[in-house]
TrEMBL record, chain A:
Lineage of the organism: Bacteria, Bacillati, Actinomycetota, Actinomycetes, Kitasatosporales
InterPro entries xref list: 3Fe4S_ferredoxin, Fe-S_cluster_ET
Iron-sulfur is among the record's keywords: yes
Organism annotation: Streptomyces ochraceiscleroticus
Function of the protein: Ferredoxins are iron-sulfur proteins that transfer electrons in a wide variety of metabolic reactions.
Name of the protein: Ferredoxin
TrEMBL record, chain B:
Cofactor(s) for this UniProt protein: FAD
Originating organism: Streptomyces ochraceiscleroticus
Residue ranges of domain FAD/NAD(P)-binding in the record: 5-302
Keyword tags: FAD, Flavoprotein, Oxidoreductase
Superkingdom: Bacteria
Gene3D superfamilies given in the database record: 3.30.390.30, FAD/NAD(P)-binding domain
Protein name in the entry: NAD(P)/FAD-dependent oxidoreductase
């Protein structure tokens, strides 16, 4: 799994953290997305795909 | 079943999410994506923010590359309007004369900017819904300081006014609401927004728009309902939107009174589903029909509608599931970011907790019929804002939610 973040697009909605808290977090100062785990285990993959799909800024891309 | 065709009408965020969910969900038949704009699917929230300000160029708005769309193996019809749907036979008619027999249709045609009769083609009068609209307005904003009147002080008008003011233009924000976004966010948050616009030098007036003044086919000002006039070089009409349902009106089986009415599964008729700004569906958790014009709902509802359609068509062995999201929206104005969960629209009660006026830290609770249904916050740490979602994830008794809100923001 290859996760790419476009922090410039991130709108700090935090929806990715709500869906996949073990993979994503937000910076305290401005809420911009932070990747906690670039190679999440298989059981996290569905949540990561979900986070990418619902991100309202389309800032998360997942390959494979 | 025979593998035929699904058509998705509307090629913006909802339409794109629908076709992707259909492929992901196992639809291997023909898939047609119809969009009336000439552009590949692009993102709309930046139109009134980063694109309008000039921070971003058009290429940054693209939601998928041409290669990514190719991989979906679709029949993409851009610059094409759907002109009719026969729900009984699931036959779609397009403005190029094509008639498509389908097994299922997902309606994702969104909304159109409302305008006033006779103003649409007038030089200097803009709306802000499409990429072309935004680029047209941006061209004007990129020049020397001029006078802009923004008619309408809802989310769109407020965001555009903020951008124009930051670019140095003389901006007047005119709205029927005494406070910016007041009808949606209530007096407490509205007053905070009014102070913010004032601090940045936006002139704010309360009143309806009667029409525009022109000279030689170009706008020179606006006429207000109370008889006053305002001089302007350019006018932005941000006076709301209308669901794009005209093309569905010929079929009496479809209720298009305010968007396309759907059940809790996002179905408007057998094999006909809707998603995004155009869909008015029954939310069981709120016990009423909702139509939500927010970016996140477009994606979530499209995925739900696509899954349910695949169950109905026998492609998926899952069960159809009611669509019961916790809606989310945000708005950026100057350095302020408003974020909201749940449903604010239609509230009969709003209570604002102003935590720090100087720091513009605020939280607010919204509800109706004794139930809390929505929450909004600005200026709080991300963790606290995320925590607010749980306060109204399911509508519940007002007092209980109010206590939980105060606890979540540390204001007990």
């Amino acid at each position: 799994m290859n996760i790419t973040l476009d922090v410039d697009k991130c709108c700090a909605a935090g929806q990715c953290v709500l869906v996949a808290p073990e993979v994503f977090d937000q910076r305290d100062e401005d809420g911009i997305v932070v990747l906690l785990d670039a190679q999440p285990p298989a059981e996290q993959h569905a949540a990561v795909h979900e986070a990418a799909a619902i991100c309202p800024a389309a800032a998360i891309q997942v390959d494979a | 079943m025979t593998v035929g065709r699904i058509a998705v009408v509307g090629a913006s965020a909802a339409g794109l999410a629908a076709v992707e969910a259909l492929r992901r969900g196992g639809w291997s038949g023909e898939l047609t994506l119809v969009g009336d704009e000439p552009h590949l699917p692009y993102d709309r929230p930046p139109l009134s923010k980063q694109l309008l300000s000039g921070d971003w160029e058009t290429d940054k708005l693209g939601l998928r590359t041409a290669e990514q769309l190719d991989a979906l193996n679709m029949d993409v019809r851009l610059g094409t309007k759907a002109t009719a749907l026969d729900a009984g036979t699931r036959t779609l008619t397009l403005d190029d004369g094509d008639r498509l027999a389908t097994d299922g249709v997902i309606v994702a045609t969104g909304v159109r900017a409302r305008t006033l009769p006779g103003l649409a083609r007038l030089d200097g009068v803009h709306t802000l819904r499409t990429l072309d609209d935004a680029l047209g307005l941006r061209t004007w904003l990129s020049g020397a300081p001029r006078r802009l009147v923004v008619a309408g002080n809802g989310v769109l008008g407020c965001e555009a006014a903020a951008v124009a003011r930051e670019l140095g233009h003389e901006v007047t924000l005119v709205g029927r609401d005494p406070l910016p976004m007041g009808r949606l966010v209530g007096d407490g948050v509205g007053a905070l927004l009014a102070a913010e616009h004032e601090r940045h030098g936006v002139r704010q007036l309360t009143g309806g728009l009667d029409g525009v003044e022109t000279a030689n086919g170009r706008v020179t000002g606006v006429r207000l309902a109370d008889g006053g006039t305002l001089e302007a070089d350019t006018v932005l009409l941000a006076i709301g939107s209308e669901p794009a349902v005209d093309w569905l009106r010929a079929d009496a089986a479809l209720d298009t009174a305010d968007g396309l009415r759907c059940d809790e599964y996002c179905a408007a008729a057998p094999g006909v589903y809707a998603a995004g700004d155009v869909a008015r569906w029954y939310h069981p958790g709120h016990g009423r029909h909702l139509r939500i014009e927010h970016r996140m709902n477009a994606t979530e509802q499209a995925m739900a509608a696509a899954k349910n359609l695949l169950v109905e068509l026998g492609v998926s062995q899952d069960e159809r599931r009611p669509f019961t999201p916790v809606p989310y929206f945000w708005s950026d104005q100057y350095g302020m970011k408003l974020q909201a969960y749940g449903v604010l629209a239609g509230a009969d009660r709003a209570e604002t907790v102003l935590l720090d006026k100087e720091q513009r830290q605020v939280a607010a609770l919204y509800g109706r019929d004794g139930q809390a249904t929505g929450v909004l916050a600005a200026g709080l740490p991300p963790r606290q804002i995320r925590g607010l979602r749980a306060v109204i994830a399911t509508p519940g008794p007002w007092e209980e939610a109010h206590q939980r809100l105060l606890a979540a923001v540390g204001a007990e």
